[in-house]
Design a protein that fits this description.
Double Stranded RNA Binding Domain; alpha+beta
Length: 95
């Protein structure tokens, strides 16, 4: 697990070891566990997958790309605590 702030200063937590074929399974588990609602559709590119989710006014990105693995991003400042909880959940359950 690697925590940092991206170029837009959003809290970003990466799991390098998680492969693309685990994205859908992990995302579904996280969505169910944290009762997240999708914002928009899943975007699938040649080297990336990403979708935003909402819990009240908190918006997070659940993403995967070839360079970073599985990524949890706070799309709103208010979502930082939620991002930390999601990342801890992923790490604890070795998803």
């Amino acid at each position: 697990m690697y925590k940092h702030r991206d170029a837009s200063q959003r809290l970003t937590i990466e799991f390098f070891q998680i492969e693309a074929d685990s994205y859908q399974r992990i995302t579904q588990i996280v969505v169910n566990q944290f009762q997240l609602a999708p914002v928009g559709e899943l975007v699938v590119g040649p080297d990336e997958l990403f979708q935003e989710f909402r819990l009240q006014r908190k918006v997070v990105g659940l993403e995967w790309d070839i360079w970073s693995g599985y990524i949890v991003v706070a799309k709103t400042k208010s979502a930082e605590k939620l991002v930390r909880k999601i990342a801890s959940f992923i790490e604890l359950h070795q998803l």
